[in-house]
Amino acid sequence: MKTQKITKNMSINEIIKKFPQSIGVFNKFNLDSCCGGAESLENAAKKSEVDLAILIEAIDNAIETPREKGHNCARCGNSSDEILLIQCEIEKGSSFVCARCLPFYIHGGH
Ligand SMILES: [Zn+2]
After folding, report:
1. What CATH number is associated with residue 33?
2. Same domain, yes or no, for 90 and 61?
3. Which of 6, 12, 16, 94 has a 20 to 30 A CA-CA distance from 106?
C-alpha cells in the first residue's frame, strides 16, 4: 500500500502550495481552488459532489507523475530549467505553464 501524501483534512490551498501539480486535478473536478481554497478537501469534495476517494487518488497520481524536462511555459516561454513548470490542460489540450503565469490562467486573465 502506498503512503498518501494528502489527507481529506488538508485545505485545497495547502495541497496546492505543497504540490502545485495538483491544481490540474482541482480544475478537472471543477473544485474552486481560488476563492474556495480554504475549504478542507473533504468539504470541497462534498460541495462539488465529487467522490472524495476518487479525488484523493487523482491528486496522488498527479503528484507522483514526475516533472518532465525540456518544456516551456505556454505564456511567457520560460523553460523548465529556469522556473517550475506545471502541466495543465488549457485551450487546445495539454500544455505547460510556469508558476508565475499560473495565476493568469486561474483567474482567467485579469
Ligand atoms: Zn510563464
Report:
1. 1.10.3910.10
2. no
3. 6
Residue 97 β-bridge partners: 86
- Say whether both 77 and 96 belong to one domain: yes
Cα–Cα distance measured from residue 60 to residue 105, given in angstroms and rounded to the nearest whole number: 22
Which residues neighbour ligand 1 (ion) by CB within 5 Å? 73, 75-76, 78, 98, 101
Distance CA 58, CA 67 (A): 16
Would you say the pTM of this structure is higher than 0.90? no
Judge residue 33's burial from the number of C-beta atoms within 10 Å of its C-beta, 0-12 exposed, 13-18 middle, 19 or more buried: buried
Domain count, the chain: 2
Dist. CA 90 → ligand 1 center (Å) = 13
pLDDT digit string, tens, across residues 27-51: 889 887 666 678 999 999 998 899 9
